[in-house]
Amino acid sequence: MDELDILKKDWNKGNDKYPKLSYNEIYKMILKKSSSIVKWIFIISILEFAFWLAISFSFKGTSYSGKLEALDINHILIPFSIISYGVLLYFFYLFYKNYKNISATDSSKTLMENIIKTRKTVKYYVIFNLVSLVIGAVIGALYGFNHNPEFSNKLDLATANGEVFKFYAVIIIVIILVLAVVIGVLLLFYWLIYGILLKRLNRNYKELKKLDA
Amino acid sequence: MNKELEHSFVELLEKHQNIVHKVCRLYTNNYDAHNDLFQEITIQLWKAYPKFRGDAKFSTWMYRVGLNTAITLYRKSKRSIKTQDFEGVEFKIKAEDYDDTEEQQLKVLYKAVHQLNDIEKALVFLYLEDKDYREISETLGISEVNARVKMNRIKTKLRTILNP
To answer: pTM of the full predicted structure?
Structure first.
């Protein structure tokens, strides 16, 4: 008889050694709120969508947005906004669809895969936003170089002083630094939140995949 | 959710609650953690109950939801982590602990099972519940052959833990 068979004998005979919860105690439990990782993923994901939406709204009405309007680039901004909201809706639909597919009655592997899939949808949305941020910054800078009179004046001044190269270098370095800091902070935030939340799931999923490899 | 559904669910769970207690016993090691996990499994079972069609046995359905909650969905609460988290603790069982008396032997065996990882515990749980390899493989989502191979490895691992 191996070790597990010894355990099995004890396992099945000792049903009276567990607490016996009453009907009312169980009833009270079903009224409580879940604290599962799926609930947290849902809350955080909704906050992420709200965060990017809030960023796009809060941008409107700022002095920077006023400057952009003065540049008369609506022909760029309007399609850009339509694409952004379209993409947001698409990702949100995918996210909700995947979220709805998560079921505790699936096999463990399928359940884990569905959670990872839901999580990935939001991750791709965030990547899309970060890439848009970089592209937007580059387009904005290029457009500014060519169309902003304020910029032309400063450039003329720098040319007169023989500092054209320095002038461009400073602008480009500042843009890169700001983008790096913003992206760095966001990535750190994600790494911390999801690293902690999904650590166990990832470890167990790896283990299950290893079994079927 | 209507009252009738609530009533039938609570009644069924009250009757089969030992299954949930057994899952909690394998995945936790103190009273608070046991209660936390029991609570979460109950909520998950309740959430899934409207889709329970009765074509499977209620107990079989409970195994799946219970294990899935323990392995994947459950987020350990702070109070559980303080005293219950085994993952970072590697405790070797001393040879002198392995006594001949049955009770002592069982204590050592349970201690050894607690050192297994989450997936291994799930396999052990289903094995102890006398489930066949088909059901084990379906519950975890792995092939039957691999479930069998893994089970043999777990037995070897347990032997190594018990006889270092």
So the answer is: 0.82
